[in-house]
């Protein structure tokens, strides 16, 4: 049996792996057990009752976290003329058309999120094999193919998080930094969970939301009581 590192063992002390903690308590436990010198990311994982191999059970969307992600997001925009100027004014880090396509084709991807105007998609489509595996291909369903470039750039910079169910029926995403106060993290977690709930596909049968857990970059995974992540009225 593999030996558990001392730091990991310490972070797990007092944790009941069979208990579903209230959201507030789970966040406080992660904060109390942090022993690293960097600002850890808080991540949520949601186990859903779907089989994404079927098109009518795919879960995908985007959520604007009310308190941001706590990380700097570099945004690239494929646009021309006035829309390119709009992107730059909104704070896009990289803006271009054919020239940007050439850069990406060379493997130079100096951005985290990609946005495009609809007229650019025939051009951007050539980058499917490069951007697709990284989950960065612009898609109208998550607001990254749009004519409202300024709003898309600001949303990406301000805390927009894309989510997509994986083969095992799990959706996960970063919902903030450990340095955020507990209330801010609670609001972000609830916003993420609410967006996933609203993205329930027509083909989903039976129990949709099975299990939720949160963790920090170097911390333990904690089961969360489903009732505690419901939006506050």
UniProtKB/TrEMBL annotation:
GO cellular component: cytosolic large ribosomal subunit
Record keyword Transmembrane present: no
GO biological process: regulation of translation; translation
A Pfam family reported for this protein in Swiss-Prot or TrEMBL: Ribosomal_L1
InterPro entries: Ribosom_uL1_bac-type, Ribosomal_uL1, Ribosomal_uL1-like, Ribosomal_uL1/biogenesis, Ribosomal_uL1_3-a/b-sand, Ribosomal_uL1_CS
Leader sequence segment: none
GO molecular function: rRNA binding; structural constituent of ribosome; tRNA binding
Source taxon at top rank: Bacteria
Annotated SUPFAM superfamilies: Ribosomal protein L1
Keywords: Repressor, Ribonucleoprotein, Ribosomal protein, RNA-binding, rRNA-binding, Translation regulation, tRNA-binding
Gene3D superfamilies noted in UniProt: 3.30.190.20, 3.40.50.790
Function per UniProt: Binds directly to 23S rRNA. The L1 stalk is quite mobile in the ribosome, and is involved in E site tRNA release. Protein L1 is also a translational repressor protein, it controls the translation of the L11 operon by binding to its mRNA.
Cross-referenced NCBIfam families: rplA_bact (TIGR01169)
Family recorded in the similarity comment: Belongs to the universal ribosomal protein uL1 family.
Subunit organization: Part of the 50S ribosomal subunit.
Name of protein: Large ribosomal subunit protein uL1
Organism, as annotated: Borborobacter arsenicus
């Amino acid at each position: 049996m593999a030996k558990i590192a001392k730091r990991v063992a310490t972070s797990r002390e007092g944790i009941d792996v069979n208990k579903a903690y209230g959201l507030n308590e789970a966040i406080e436990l992660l904060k109390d057990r942090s022993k690293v010198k960097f600002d850890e990311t808080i991540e949520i994982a949601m186990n859903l009752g779907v089989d994404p191999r079927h098109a009518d059970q795919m879960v995908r969307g985007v959520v604007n976290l009310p308190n941001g992600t706590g990380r700097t997001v570099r945004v690239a925009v494929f646009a021309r003329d006035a829309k390119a100027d709009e992107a730059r004014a909104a704070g896009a880090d990289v803006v271009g058309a054919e020239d940007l396509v050439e850069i990406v084709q060379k493997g130079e991807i100096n951005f985290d999120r990609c946005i495009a105007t609809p007229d650019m998609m025939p051009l951007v489509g050539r980058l499917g094999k490069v951007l697709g595996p990284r989950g960065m291909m612009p898609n109208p369903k998550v607001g990254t193919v749009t004519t409202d470039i300024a709003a898309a750039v600001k949303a990406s910079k301000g805390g927009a998080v894309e989510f997509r169910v994986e083969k095992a029926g799990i959706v996960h995403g970063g919902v903030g930094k450990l340095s955020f106060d507990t209330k801010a993290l609670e609001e972000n977690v609830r916003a993420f969970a609410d967006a996933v709930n609203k993205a329930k596909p027509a083909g989903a049968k039976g129990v949709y939301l099975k299990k939720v857990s949160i963790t920090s970059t170097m911390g333990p995974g904690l089961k969360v009581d489903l009732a505690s992540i419901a939006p506050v009225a």
